[in-house]
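FAQ
Q: What does a multi-component entry look like?
A: The components come first, one per line:
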Amino acid sequence: MDGIHDMGGMDGFGRVQPEANEPAFHADWERRVFGIVNGVLALTGVNIDEFRHAIERIPPARYLSSSYYQRWLLAAETLLVERGILSREELKSLAQPEQVSVALPAVSPRGVPAQARLRPRFKTGDRVKVRSIHPPGHTRSPRYVRGKTGVVRRVHGIYVFPDTNAHRAGEKRQHVYLVEFSARELWGRDHRERVMIDLWEDYLERVERGSIVNRKRKFVPARQKRRAEKVSTALPPPGRSNRNRTRSRGRVVPKGTGLRKRRDQ
Amino acid sequence: MSEHDPSEHGPAARVKALEQLLVEKGLVDPARLDAIVDTYESKVGPRNGARVVARAWADAAFRKRLLSDAVAASAELGIAGPEGGHLVAIENTPRIHNLVVCTLCSCYPWPVLGLPPVWYKSFAYRSRAVSDPRGVLREFGVDLADDVEIRVWDSSAEQRYIVLPERPPGTDKMNEEQLAELVTRDSMIGVAKVTAPGKSR
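Then the predicted structure of the entire assembly, as tokens:
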């Protein structure tokens, strides 16, 4: 969902304000919320993606006006009610009725193929474009990279796909890639700055070398065609061979390792 | 915000009631909850990361192992745990400065740094670290030359990043323990440089 949590690149939040000698928790109730989320939610079978998505489902105005552990509390209550562990009445007994505010409902799960492709589609050096998707549910593809082109810098291995796992619609395991984007591509600025971000395979599509150039070739005269070919040679080498794909250092994580049972912090 | 926030009247009472309810349902063992909190409040913290950094400065072979497989390297020092299963170390150099953020939530390498500070989870940091890293660093007192490349690592998946800061000059005679004393949490997130004792940042 294109929610308020997806903040990368937004303006208006002001300066970063560090606190000197900051304690781990600022109040005892924060300790208890931390403990409940880490000690209880996991026991009830809630996965990390569901927890993150429960935070994202907090209405934007409420999200912005709540502190970090207040958002955790809201998310925990939401999930406990949705799981039937706590009834709405019990939740109401914790507070004045008008104060009860559970996050928005998640979208219904949709069926997805269980079997993910285990061979990485991309390899280090490949140019990739982040798909311009706007899923109504959970996603870890931030808005600021969607539609942007970057370069694969590392193949991380196979991980559970958050977009389905958050909706209990299957793990859809697939490769995750470290992708590098320039400040020019993301923000239109020529600063010596890059963003390195980890993206699941389903978020990405291949940018073929000269794919735009080739399309032009049908229409342009020979002189421009030569120029176009020059441009195409300036691009990094393409991933056109299947042979190299197995060279990636993908680490396959066996099922049942509890890989994604961990809680978000 | 016009919306009424129950928390402003005391999340304390609400959380206490919630915990009580979960205890009654047999879902919470308060002692277990105490143990979880204690672990992250007093046992796991940036001193772990500082030991890793100091070892990397003092031992070139370890540094190499850390940069190629930070999970295995930190395990050599007995450091492991939740949010650290896919730890990646990234190295600062005179030409490249690394900065870690989580724009979508608050992902952070718990076993080496503990729980994240409030500013790391703040809207200001999450929004601007990717689009204006130089400006954010200036607010932390780090003024990088325009020709130093900044790499911002957005922790959007399972990888958790720790910055290996540059070893400050004038520390050649220091042992590993003394070096670890110099390493700050902020330097391992990438919003500070490590300075030698007696020097201001």
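Q: Is there any commentary attached?
A: Sometimes. For this entry: Chain A touches chain B through 85 residues (CB under 8 Å).
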